[in-house]
Records
---
Amino acid sequence: MQRCLRFPGEERAEEEKSKKGEVVLTSEPSYTPSGARTASSNCDQCLASSQKKALFTCPKCQFLRYCSKDCERKASDIHRFECPALKRMAPDYPSESVRLLARLIFILRNGGEKKVEKFSEKEGRKFRDLMNHYSDIKVRKDYMKDVEKMMSDLKTYIGESFLPNESDFLGIYGRVMVNRFCLHDEELGMVGSGLYLAASIFDHACIPNCSFSFEGTKVVIRALTDMDDFSFNKCRISYLDPLQGTKERREELYKFWFFWCDCKPCHDEERLSMENTIKCENEHCLSPVMVPEDDASSTPPTCTRCGETVNPATLKKYNEIIAYTKKTMSIMSREENNYETCYDLLEKQGSVLSSMNIWRCRTLDFAFNAAINNGCFSLAFDYGDENKAAMRFYYGPDHPAYGVFLLHLAKAKFYNKEYKEGLEHIREAEPILKVAYGASHPLISEELSRLTYIAYEDVEFALARRLAMAQKGTKEDDPRLLSP
């Protein structure tokens, strides 16, 4: 079962080609995005950051902020309904999901059901065209409990007179929760969520052939691969981060999107063999040894390289570490994680898990981002170096997340004056990021360029580079293409 209802027919000509990096679709938010988590730092209409534009607060509700009178005017179609409710709720404002559902209810009551967003010349989507997963939600106790809470919160927020009956609300709730996008700012931080009718046509793959990014509130879908016979039916985006175990990834997709993923990575034997691996105890080998995840056999795993058998005590310790890691990481995210917790996990894993173990890789990635965010570039340098091979293996060499990882690793290298290696990471990251986000995205036009110039402003590095060029008899060219 997929996330969305498909339309019949061809969206684009069967013989039409789509090139790597080409924009295949753009979509405006059909139902106003909600940014409750960043209401104080972003314009509610266009999501402009307070770091780049001066924001002013709505004088009535004193909650939402805008960057211009034009944005305030555009937002008024919806904000005129929610403004009195926000003012009454202060300072106990509703959650982001409650605000998004409330906005959608206001819009649907005022003719929003008729709105169509085109995804081709002939075809488009209305809100009712989205799958509501009514029957799936009705039999799930966790979802019905959430529905009950949402209706209670909405009753408090906008009043009972605005609330649809439970059956209609379930239809609205299901369409929103399954089809909404998390919005990201220029630095790829989450700033809210919104519903995009046209963009909801894309189904999932754990390693996708399309990526999405945002220009303000507009979502932009780009092809990550060349497609000779383009069709939207063949386009896939990723609904979640693939950097987790196959079992956990498939369970998460079923829990939140109501389908069991059957894509190629979910059946990749090489990937599966590496996800749960222990470090060979032979100090002259140290190769990854596969540990069957649900193995009821009494036969301990054996290294295929040297023949060393894993000690039963070590295997027991491995299973305990994995259980502890999964439990700890279930309440963490890449954006919001505690460095001390990551360090504790890495210490426990260090002598047992192989460097290619998916849970070691995920923990290192979280620790790497925590170190970057806290300016601990020496630690980030070490974590990134250890994790590079595993990140490339699990994401693939063209995945946007791998490109962002390389960019951050280059930053760590530069702060540690490892300019040559840093520039190598930038050269690898640049084409990945250009394909996924476009050459004008701030990651490329600002961050990547800034890092490059940091390297070439260093006197020692510049002298070493010029000396190397003189010895080779070469001339100066684009600095990003040369290194000593």
---
Amino acid sequence: MKMHFCIPVSQQRLDRLGGRYVLYSVYLDGYLFCRVRYSQLHRWNEQLRRVFGNCLPPFPPKYYLAMTASMANERRDQLEQYLQNVTVDPNMLRSDVFVDFLKLVQLDTFSITTKTASLDIFLPDGRNIQVEILTSDTAERVLEVVSHKIGLCQELLGYFGLFLIQCCKEGKFSVMKKLVDFELPYVSLQSAKVEDCKVGLRKWYMDPSLDSVLMDSAAAVALIYMQAVQDMEKEWAKPTQVQRQKLEALQKEDNQTKFLELSQEVRHYGFLQLDPCTCDYPEPGCRAVLSVGNNEISCCITLPGNQTQEIIFQMNRVKCWQVTFLAFLLSSCLKKMISEKMVKLAAENPEMKDSCFLPRNKIEIIKVDCVFGTIMEEDL
């Protein structure tokens, strides 16, 4: 699936000889990723083409005469589409020529040299693990270092991820974004420019039943148990009073396995809760809290009279969605749910491996705009 690359702005600069060039600000999942010139991307495309041949998406052509404003905007749009389309191929994402270039431009953009550094990785229970890394280490590499330190086997790394997390007042926190494999956590943390921002380790799957895959690993169980306890405390998961009493008793006994088994029955267990926004349904200006997981999007809407109403979008009815500006974390969760569903269906029926699991007769288009707080559903 495409990654959320965008190039919202570009700037004209002067080189050492007084010539003009354009510097493109590339954003990934709503945060500045790097600044690059067309010539850098052009050389990178040539390197990729030597490895992968003609399977690459089209790259915008060179202009040998001065560009007009419309030509400059067209090139910016074309470069944005190129970056989105080139990330579709998983083999390309894992290649050295792909990763090495993106590592270099991240370091150059924020004037960070490759050196040894200490990085604190925060766990869901509030503790942190300090690891020694290189500033040029990718999120994939840092996750390997962390897993070795806590005794998590390599085979289970795909169920966990590194996230940028903002710790707010009164114990609240916000998951800002999931770091993709080729991002540099040290650089992303330095460049985020958000107060109380940390790199956190969390499980990265939206289907709670996948807990069962991890139950034979003590390190994995400890991690998902910590996150389950945190989710209950933060009220992301919503147990009944009876469930809460049983969970508290199991927590006192430190019976992590039974705690996780009972958690499977808790409403919104394993969901990721997004920051509050506003929506235009059932009327403009209503406050909404979105929780995503287990193949659904739950919208808890506060009405003008302070009553609450819950609206649920089932993912098996969602065909596509449109994301504008900063709703990237929601879109990442939707993509994760779709990929998990496709893997499960492919395992059950190999003939469905290349087919779409979404039904054709009932489709919902979800439009999300975090700036204006718009969440809309259209039945086709």
---
Amino acid sequence: MTQSVIVQVGQCGNQVGCRFWDLALREHAHVNKKGQYDEALSSFFRNVDPRRSDGGSCCVGGRIQHLKARAVLIDMEEGVVNGILQGALREVFDSAQLLTDVSGSGNNWAVGNLTYGSAYKELIVDKLRKAAEHCDCLQCFFLIHSMGGGTGSGLGTRVLSLLEEEFPDVCRIVTAMYPSAEDDVITSPYNSVLAMRELTEHADCVLPVENQSLVNIVNKISLMSHGAKPGSVLRKDSAVTSGRGSLSPTEKPFDAMNNIVANLLLNITSSARFEGSLNMDLNEIAMNLVPFPRLHYLVPSLTPLYTLADVNIPTRRLDQMFSDAFSKDHQLIQADPKHSLYLACALMVRGNVQVSDLRRNIERLRPSLPFVSWNQEGWKTGLCSEPPVGHSHSLLALANNTCVKPTFMELRGRFTKLYKKKAHLHHYLHVDGMDQSIFSESLSSLNALIDEYHHLDATKARLLPDAPRLSIAR
């Protein structure tokens, strides 16, 4: 059995990570009735015997003693991490896994990446190495951070480059939270474009998630689960977190949105945590979905949509679930993949689903999904037998699709508006090691990425429909 480590950086990264660990524990508690430390738990948790002075882990097969998350928590402000340590998950982490400061990065990529990245480099590497040493067979680092703030975008991408330096053979999958156009951080376009260059150069796969898409999805869940009137919307400071329809004292604003991303992580890691008739190795995601090294942005979509396991939403039929996964309403970025070009697509299914169900639905949907001419069979599938808590089945689709191009173009447009006026540039250039050339190089990197998607899109017009098959009379 392999193990993976979650590295959560910045306020957003730690809040999403916190939701992942909470939901993962719920899921394993639902499955693991005997209190035994099994291989499923070992993939993301250590089992520590508090009576052992060396803090060593217990072997698989014994009783659960004291579970510790395979995680590293980093933030340059103390608030969120302190909140985790005072909450229900406080026993899942220890001080050796944490790194905090008090002053924050001031929404400045340069402060996070260059100032804190240099000051804490050795300490970060030490914590990453210790987390890796606790693994028998380290397979993947999952990095979670935002793109708009200073610590998430700056220090998050510095951690990414350190992971590549220290563990070049270990897969690096990044979940990156992209700000909406109405983001209240004025410098978020700068931070996002500067971070994009690092993601393009150092990640194996990036799962982009847009805040506005999460708001739209939670509104949709609200309508489905609470019988809300059409037209009612989720305010940015509110949350829909359970079937009860109200915010409990332990639930915080944005928990509902963060739970969507946590469910994404639960689904992508399900094959690593549970058995299945067609398990998908995490390394296989990049191997099968990334034909070109820079084009590794995979658009995630989830079905059914829910925030917590106890949300009371209508059950979707299996075939409808496959259709939902390719609709724009279920994408975690604002995109419509059906009107763009697929390079490859992975379907990760959980529950009592047969291989024949997968094949039937792929054949049914194939005519409406335009794939590049040289990869018409570009499907990767995985079946995990353990469904999410409270559901009979679920589906995560990861699409390497040119539909990400408009998101990147919109981000470039917001960056250019500021950069043309050199607005707020002095805040960055005052940071030691920061130079204006880093801005121009980051913009050039984004332009080149957009051009690569554009050239692929241009081939779509030349795609010919499949020749009609001969019908045989019966």
